[in-house]
Design goal:
Largest sheet: none
Structural class: mainly alpha
Number of helices: 7
Number of strands: 0
Radius of gyration: 47 Å
Order of helices and strands: HHHHHHH
Length: 215
């Protein structure tokens, strides 16, 4: 944590200073963005940007760099701030790589300067992906997906267990109903047999009594 608190302001200081100068004096910084701005402006509007437009775009771009650098330095949404700083710095680096009109010595110095800028941009890009030890959004999304799959599997297993239990209960109720039906049938047969035997005995008694009376 302490290393991040120290490293972020140090990393952002260079970009903040460059972009503050671009806000205060856009004329001095317009050359570092002229190529990129001209290409983008022509594609959008179909015409070359005027000097006033170039100065306004340079000032706005530099202001964005100052805001992004401040966010990175202060730890306020540092990853978003690093992305803003990297975007501004990369556009400047791309626009300022024309070395055709320079001498060999000037080219060497310019290349060293560009390498330093590229190294600083690399540091900013690392800051843009630094999660401060916390899981990234992609990692959290994958974890949420895994948990959702796990919950779905558990729910499916529980549903299968409940279905199997319901089937067992239904079979048990069916067997119990069959046993009760057979028991009722035996009871009915026994009662019918007993009733038939009683009726037969009563009839024999009545016939015997009637025969004795006639005799």
């Amino acid at each position: 944590m302490f290393v991040r608190l120290l490293a972020r302001p140090l990393l952002a200081a260079k970009f903040i200073a460059e972009n503050v100068r671009g806000v205060q004096d856009p004329q001095s910084a317009v050359g570092s963005l002229e190529r990129v701005v001209s290409i983008a402006y022509v594609r959008v509007t179909g015409q070359q940007p005027s000097e006033t437009v170039m100065l306004n775009i340079t000032r706005a771009t530099s202001a964005a760099g100052v805001v992004g650098g401040g966010m990175l330095a202060l730890g306020i949404l540092p990853r978003a701030g690093a992305v803003i700083v990297a975007g501004v710095a990369i556009s400047r680096l791309v626009a300022s790589t024309d070395l055709a009109d320079k001498t060999m010595a000037e080219r060497g110095d310019a290349l060293l300067e560009r390498l330093g800028d590229a190294s600083a941009i690399g540091g900013v890009l690392l800051a843009a992906v630094d999660t401060a030890g916390k899981p990234s959004l992609a990692n959290r999304a994958r974890q949420a997906g895994k948990e959702a799959k796990l919950h779905a599997a558990i729910a499916k297993r529980d549903a299968a267990l409940q279905t199997a239990q319901a089937k067992r209960q239904a079979r048990e109720l069916g067997r119990r109903a069959q046993r009760d039906a057979r028991s009722l049938a035996r009871s009915l047969r026994s009662n019918a047999s007993h009733a038939a035997g009683s009726a037969y005995s009563s009839a024999r008694t009545a016939v015997h009594n009637l025969t004795g009376a006639i005799a």
